[in-house]
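tool_call: predict_structure(chain=1)
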Amino acid sequence: MAEQSSSGSRIRGSRGKRRKQPSTGRRAMTVAAWTTAGLVLIGGSGLGYVYFKLNGNITGVDINSQLGTDRPDDVDNGSMDILVLGSDSRAGANAEYGPDEGGARSDTAMIVHVYEGHKTASVVSVPRDTLVQRPDCTDSDGRTVSGSRRAMFNTAYESGGPACAVKTVEKMSGIRMDHYIEVDFTGFKKLIDKLGGVKITTAKPINDSKSHLNLAPGTHTLDGEQSLGLVRTRKSIGDGSDLGRIQLQQAFMKAFIDQVKSVGVLTNPKKLLDIADTATKAITPDSELDSVSELMSFARGLGGLDAQDVQMITMPVEYDPVDPNRVIPIKSAGQQVWTALKQDKPIPASAVKDSAGDKGDAGTVVRAR
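tool_result:
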């Protein structure tokens, strides 16, 4: 049964209805899902007057034909699951972040589970270095991409595109993804700037030569470039691994949600248009969200969510005994996570108790203002 928004419109992508799917890219900022939610949270129905302009910005990708029928059951319990990846292909405007090596990877990914009623959500970050069983996939050209044992998670996108990333997540979790959203590296920066920056407080100094970010302890309003640096920082926090970076990204995402909720552009049509224009250019959604009206309906369903309503964890993992630079899923703990989400229940604390992903203090380095 499809959920009803407060305005009475039906929210596309609720369970019980066939969905189409998705797009292309590499390192995702964990903040990506809320970029899409922000499109409507800051604009609401006011986006209608620029419908045609914004509609031309959006290109969706339908990957249903690539996924086929070998997918988890479409359970109708009122919840919604979204796979969010980000694009940092080093081509075009993203070239300033490094050489273009001819491919793109989803170096950070998250599974967003919105609970029945759309009042609360859980976010499960998947470390890019997780060794997984990557299934056989069909790419956008119809070619079969062979699966692989002990493949890094972020190679799924690189090898077979969005469909392969979705299929890998579905095989790993047993949960059918209702939607897929991709955010562009450069678009992320521009959106933060249009929002007027994101205010965060650092408890410790951050000095990271790789992400080019230097912040003293205290409160800062980060512009787009600094925000991008923050969500890419890992060498100077925690144990220097991707796990610490994920905790930092999750803390930043909460600050981003607060900023989107407080930006107050409903009485400023020009700012509204600028933000909506930037946001629609920054994302590539699945083909059930590839119009302004569909995005509005989808994001309106997330409009009641505040930062405190979102539970964030890292998929339970431990360091690989063969290669300490990689992590492997903790099967029993992971099963607790996936079972809880399938049943539309909160993730139990016991699921992350022994996980390397939620240990350390990297997530305490940054907090919302």
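agent: The chain has a mean pLDDT of 78. Proceeding to next step.
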